[in-house]
Amino acid sequence: MRSPQADVEKILNDMRNALRQNRMSFVPRKKNMDTLALMGWQFKDVKNAMYALTYSNYVKGPEDDRKDPHGDKLWIFKTNLENQIIYIKFKILYQKDGSIKTLSFHIDGI
Questions:
Q1: 32 burial level (CB within 10 Å; 0-12, 13-18, 19+)
Q2: What pLDDT tens digit does each residue of the chain (110 aa) get?
Q3: Cα dist from 83 to 70, 79, 80, 91, whole Å
Q4: Is 75 helix (H, G, I), strand (E, B) or coil?
């Protein structure tokens, strides 16, 4: 389900605020780590790419996290970085401290 642009812009603003405060966790899944290695990227590059997301990168959300169905919702974006489509899934931990939990940051389709 797609959300109104105002809702997506709010999530993006909240995400940027958390990034400015250095409050982001990154789930080190194999496909996430493989993508970073392939692209020669570090954590700061992930943060910069996420900071640059706009409404035009929005795919879907909010969605339930099946591992935490009563928790904060997931948001999904895709962006083109270095000729690769990157799939990004994160949530803002409003119920905890307003930080970001990035579950996916990998080449789309892997």
A1: buried
A2: 689 999 999 999 999 999 999 999 999 999 999 999 999 999 999 999 999 999 999 999 999 999 998 999 999 999 999 999 999 999 999 999 999 999 999 999 88
A3: 37, 10, 6, 25
A4: strand
Relative to beta strand 99-107, strand 84-93 is: antiparallel
Nearest of 67, 45, 23 to residue 88 by alpha carbon: 45
d(CA 21, CA 36): 23
Instruction: Tell me how far apart the alpha carbons of residues 84 and 22 are, in angstroms, rounded to a whole number.
Output: 26
Q: Which residues contact 103 (CB under 8 A, 6 or more apart)?
A: 27, 29, 74, 89, 90, 91
* Inter-residue contact 30 to 109 (CB < 8 Å): no
Return the amino acid letter for 12: L
CA atoms within 13 A on the CB side of 17: 12
The b-or-e profile of 50-68 (16+ CB within 10 A means b, else e) is beebeeebbeebbeebeee
